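If you are new to this repository, start here. Below is one unmodified record pulled from the training split, so you can see the exact layout before writing a loader.
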Amino acid sequence: MLLADALVWPEFKTESFYQLLQIILFTFALGFFISLWKKRNKKREDSWRKVLRFAYSRHLNSGEVNLLEDFFNNSRISYSEAVNLLNDSGLFKRELIKYFSKKRDGNEEHLVQIVDKLFPPEKLSKNEITSIDDIEIGEPCSVEFEDNFYLGTVLKKTDNELLINFYERLPERSREGKSILLYFFRLEIGGYLLEGSVRKLKSQTLIFTFTGEVEWKGDLHLMAEIRRSVKVTPNELDFEEKQKEDLEVLSDIGLDPDEVDMITQPSSLSGYTIKISDRALLIHFNGIISPLFLKKHDIWSLELDLEASSILELKGRIFPSKMSPGKYLFKYLNITTDERKSIFNEIKKFNPSQEQLS
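And here is the target side for that same chain:
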């Protein structure tokens, strides 16, 4: 081959030009769409971080945040709605309730709490619910129908009735006149059940007639630092049973119970509360208490002297505090609604906070 032949520029065909152009355009388009996807994804992630900060500012816990993230990632809201979620609280609330309405995890009351924390009723978060007058238009609620729970919002109200809208059809077999319970939530107080009946039911709406009965549920488990005197004694039946066991043990080892000092500890303990919640008390006892004496009895009776000159008599169990040496937890057993409400009313007077006793 001559040198002149080797230096000849290869012939460039039209087909090759179009193939090269297609490769360049494809590469450019691919890079453009990847860049666009990254920008959209970053916008969505930034939006979620804003929603997350909003959720924590409304005091949602980690479990509630997980449910909110599930909604953000799996609901049918569009991209533009997702990135502007905090700018449209009406859309946010409506889509959240709609999404939660389809969940069947048996914990719809908890879902009502999440909605209420994110969108609390104006000026009502500190108010108890005693009647229809305390319910605000737009408040979320839940109701049980035929062993299923449904989420809804209040559309209208009268002196003794509420018009409730749900985001899915109610079961057709549900009858008018049926007794039901509506669940509402107050951020700084807890949950309430309103007793009533269905006056009229149609597709996704019902008219609820209130009968005048309200039950407070106190879901929040608040506490406050309150000093109140307490007196604790072993439960009478438990105390007698333990004494009987001790006598049998002494008899088995050949000792005369009359010659042995059976009562090495007082029959009652006195002290005062350090913290009070609707589930337990953190107590300081006067004097030195033997751990063996506390372990010796399972159930204890406690007299709690409240400020209003009333004394609550409660049953419970006593445990040493893990975080406060020398202090003890008294956890209630079989506490009644009235007793819990009395305790909660006392807590509300002393700047309550989330329960943290141990």
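Two things worth knowing about this chain: The chain is about 35% helix and 30% strand. Residues 257-264 have pLDDT under 50 and may be disordered.
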